[in-house]
Sequence to fold (459 residues):
Amino acid sequence: MLAFTGLCSAYMFTLVVPIQAELPQLLDAQRSDTAWVVTITLLVAACATPISGRLGDMYGKRRIVLVLIGLLIAGSAVAALSGGIGGLILGRAMQGATTGVIPLGIAIMRDVLPPARLGTAVALMSATMGVGSALGMPISALIVEHLDWHMLFWVAAALGVLALLLVALFVPPSTLRTPGRFDFVGAAGLAAGLVGVLLAVSRGADWGWLSPATLGAGLGGVAVLLLWGWYQLRVAEPLLDLRVAARPAVLYTNLAAIGMGFALFGTSVTLPQMLELPVESEAGLGLSLFAAALVVMPSGIVMMVISPLSGWLERRMGARFMLAFGTGAVAVAYAFLLIWSSEVWHLLVANILVGVGVGFSFAAMPMLIMRSVPSHETGASNGINALFRSLGTSAASATMAAVLAALTVDFQGTPVPTHAAFDTCFWLGAVAALGACILSFFIPKHPHYAEHAAVPDRP
Fold:
């Protein structure tokens, strides 16, 4: 039931991909304005995820999951009923808040499942971030090809209603609570700082990387986050205990999450474009939108299939080994693309490798976190890990879009990316995945604080 909510949440990120290029015409708006349909979802997801994790620790994880699903349903209805840019952006913002169900679901599993089943369940829940995105693309493409684009949001609302019923009926209420007061100042500071940084990252290509708007948002966001960190170290009941977050196992896992978020979203940006661009452009393979989505989809299926194997491997080899293996597999996938990317089957093989790598690494990260933090911080700490993944995806979206826009050739009066542009993106993805792999070796095998962790360390 929880995994289904994770799938619905992840689907929100690829929901509008099939209509993204057509939004200016559909909404009678400037392209710079319609870009907010995607940007606002990333911003709200990044801000809401760690905050909802903390609220779950304090007031009940199941209760907050139900609230987030309710926002998904309401946001989908708002977007479906909207005929203009304002309503669509508002609805997409509400949809973005539901991303917090994935780290909260992992924390619920830690509370209710026996240790023997925990690794497999966490692997499945973690994989939903990639599975939902990959499976959602052909669904969205099929809807757009045969129905009005508003149906995308009615389908999302229907999925939300189903998820709400399943969680309400089958997920037990949370019994482990953290007493105390919610840090509203800390939540506001974190949100303000993240919005500034993510605005600079996601909109820098459009605004100009050295423009006053980009520099003001980015530097202002960093300044706010530094002030927020100073405040968190001094307040009695912080939103997040940064001393715990600075532990090597937690810190290096979160830094690796940035690289993996970048590497995962990098394929989501580049591969569909390569598959859909005309063959005559010398950089594309000429597939339809639906056919391209079908080529991308197997990575999500692979992530789901290997979830039981991830749990078995974690129990025997440890989450640290799984993270190294997964990040290494994604680096190999990008290396494969740098050598072979001229046929559809080349991209299919690389995408399957990405599915294997993301499946293992995303399953490993929550276990590494929960083996390093106390039980009353599992929701917030997994939320921060999801936040770092979001930072990676936002950086990939902005960076690769800038590269693809900068290296173009004219094709029938329209600028299209060159093969060199895609190769540059593949190099960036390979470096990000390799960096995450290197970071995994800095994670302690047996942290000295593991005896106080939410999940006991492996013997």
